[in-house]
Amino acid sequence: MLTGVSEAVYYILAAIIIGSGVMVVSMKNIFHSALFLVLCFFGVAGIYILLSAEFIAAVQVLIYVGAITILMIFAIMLTARLYSAQIKQSNEQVVPGLIIVSALLVITIFALSKTTWKLSSQAPETQTVAEIGKLLMTTYVLPFEIVSVVLLSALIGAIVIARRD
Amino acid sequence: MIGLNHFLTLSTILFCIGIFGVLTRRNAIGILMSIELMFNAVNINFVAFSRFVTPTALVGQIFAIFIITIAAAEATVGLAIVLLIYRNFKGINVDNINIMKW
Amino acid sequence: MFQDYAYVGFFCLIGVIFVLFVFFLSRLVRPHHPTPDKLESYECGELPVGSAWVQYNVRYYLYALIFVIFDVEIVFLFPWAVVYRSLGFFAFLEMIIFLAILIFGLIYVWKKGALKWV
Fold first, then answer.
1. DSSP structural state of residue A80
2. Which of B8, B12, B36, C82 is nearest to A54 (CA)?
3. Given this model, what pLDDT does residue C5 score?
4. A145 vs C69: CB contact, 8 Å cut-off?
5. Of the residues A64, A93, B4, C93, which has the fewest C-beta atoms closer than 10 A?
6. Mind listing the pLDDT tens digit for each residue in C77-106?
7. Are C65 and A53 in contact (CB under 8 A)?
8. Residue B80 forms contact with A (CB below 8 Å)
9. Is A162's CB within 8 Å of C65's CB?
10. Residue C113: left (phi > 0), alpha (psi -120 to 50), or beta?
11. Does the CB of A77 have a partner CB in chain C at under 8 Å?
């Protein structure tokens, strides 16, 4: 790998993620927040590729960008009353929230810098999709089957809640 | 060289942004969006640990897939609840939803 | 591995630059004489009624919701399809169980009439 390229890619992606993340929580118009959420999810997909987790990146784009954000935009359109006036989108907890969050950030990053991880220098798996498929079908078969039950209950629950009877 | 700590720092910052959104948003959909940001931060953590601590086992990636799945299920049910709230309260500002408050 | 995605990034960059360049170019060469008629959303045809920010029908949301659930299902089908040959009948059985549980949900939605456009 060319020296410096992965660093540059990392910093660009981190800037995209953090910038759009800040926009998501601070935009006045909730619809614009949803669009920045898409950008943020794309940035995270790029980070997964940087971590040589291609399949997770594809899943991220497929589910987060393609499905969850669309669902959010639909929900925003359904509750369209919000657009009529420039309603204040944040409550009075901004300053305490900022203090708490920055304290958490400082403490966590301090703890991170003090910790030594058991790093491994092996090369990462390249055939991730096949390996994930094998693990899902053998070691993690029970969670895999339970996922379908979770999805079923989410489907039925959401239909029952959202339908107007 | 970009190491594990870089990714962990990024995910910490993203998680903190998510917490800030949950604390300060008045719109219920905005809160759900912030929760999705936090899910993403957690997933970055899992995949980064998978890459740097157990590069050949991929357990972290499996976990990330399950988390994404659960996030999708959570978003569908959560937004359905938001729609129900909108129908009953004519708005989705969480400040106004206080009939359970004593 | 990671280098392969340099092409993806390169194409994204070219796409962005191309769009910006074409917009810049058209700004340079186009005439600029706006009249109220020209500034209509549609120069010919219907006048737009009201704002585009109207409240959507909840039916769209129900379809999106069902779509999300089955989109997640695809994510699990994909790695299964990659390793299907090497794992054989057991993997087939697992996937049949997985799909049967989700198809039960589809049947429920169907019976409930959520797929009907009334």
1. G
2. C82
3. 78
4. no
5. C93
6. 989 998 888 888 888 898 999 999 999 999
7. no
8. yes
9. yes
10. left
11. yes
Give the residue from C83, B84, C61, B56 showing the smallest Cα distance to A161.
B84
Q: Per this entry, what is the length of chain A?
A: 165
Give whole-number Cα distances, A13 to A8, A37, A44, A156, in Å.
9, 14, 8, 37
Euclidean distance between CA atoms A153 and B95, whole angstroms: 29
Q: Does the distance separating the beta carbons of A132 and C2 come in below 8 Å? A: no
Q: Which C positions 59-78 lie with beta carbon below 8 A of chain A?
A: 60-62, 64-69, 71-76, 78
Q: Across the interface, which of A55, A89, A151 has its CB nearest the CB of B25? A: A89
Mutate to test the interface with A, among C55, C93, C95, C98 (most CBs of A within 10 A): C98
Residue whose pair of structure tokens reads 């796409």 in the numeric block? C15
Q: Which amino acid is at A86?
A: Q
pLDDT of residue C47: 67
The pTM of this model reads 0.87
pLDDT band for C113, please (50, 70, 90 cuts): confident
Over its length of 102 residues, how does chain B's per-residue pLDDT go in tens digits?
788 889 999 999 999 999 999 999 888 888 999 999 999 999 999 999 998 888 888 888 999 999 999 999 999 999 999 888 888 887 777 877 777 776
For B59, residues 6+ apart whose C-beta sits below 8 A from its C-beta are: A135, B50
| Yes or no: domain B4-89 corresponds to CATH 1.10.287.3510 | yes
ipTM for the whole complex: 0.90
Token representation of residue C102: 């989700």
Task: Please answer whether residues C80 and A136 qualify as being in contact, where contact means their C-beta atoms are separated by less than 8 angstroms.
Answer: yes
Q: Is the dihedral of CA A104, A107, A110, A116 positive or negative?
A: negative
- One DSSP character per residue, C62-100 reads HHHHHHHHHHHHHHHHHHHHHHHHHHTHHHHHHHHHHHH
Q: Which of A7-21, B22-36, B80-94, C29-43 has the lowest mean pLDDT?
A: C29-43
| Closest listed residue to residue A76, CA positions, set A29, A143, A43 | A29
Residue type at A73 in one-letter notation = I
Chain A interface mutation, best of B1, B2, B70, B98, highest count of A Cβ atoms under 10 Å: B2
